[in-house]
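Batch manifest, entry 17 of 40.
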Amino acid sequence: MACDLEKANDTLRHFERLVNEGRVESWSGKLKVGVDLGTANIVIAVVDSENRPVAGISTASKVVRDGIVVDYIGAVRALTRMKAELEAKLGCTLDRAATAIPPGIMDGNVRCICNVVEGAGFEVSNVVDEPTAAASVLGIDAGAVVDVGGGTTGISIMEDGKVLYTADEPTGGTHMTLVLGGFYRCTTEEAEVMKKDPAQEHAVFPVIRPVVEKMASIVKANLRNYSVDAIYVVGGACCFSQFEQVFEKNIGISTIKPAAPLLVTPLGIAMNA
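Output type: structure tokens
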């Protein structure tokens, strides 16, 4: 099945508007919920029975690091608050939710992530790996999905709808922030704000380009034993306009970045709920 990127991008842009504007769409059938506990953000996505976006909410967070919950109480509190806010807008309770994990994390860490979701009042309906969730949104069953998160770069290689190989390697958005802070001699908080400001990309990307090239080298090494026609990059750390060009130049494989890359995985988690 070929990726219908135009359709996927329309869905992602619509979901992004719902999140940014705090709006709720009408829906049909039962609601499905996805919880993404990311290194930089927690996102809840809600879709209807036909996988159409209904609502969503996102908040900056530091409760998870590299797929490991480092602040359990903070994570539960943040997720509980977000759940209550969505329920008030929807006018109904959200009882069940799927969640996701980076490829290859230990069983104990998976249990801890589920405990956070359950601690916020959800019953966990499914646990999916992050790149596979992203593939659900993009409608692909072959190629490499690369999820560039805050702490790590996750890679899943798919063929005929099945995951052949997964890996999760250190180097992500946090590393970009540290390099940026060192270069401009500012705090990590100031560097993070600068990194996320599209108006400052001209001053940011040349500095963090070596980090992106390191990510590309990680992906290239993990693809060496597989024949892949396309790489799909998702995650908040790949939002820079030149990101996919750097990957394509260093890896030599067509690299595609969908719209709203930060929201691809959360939406896919909900679709798999």
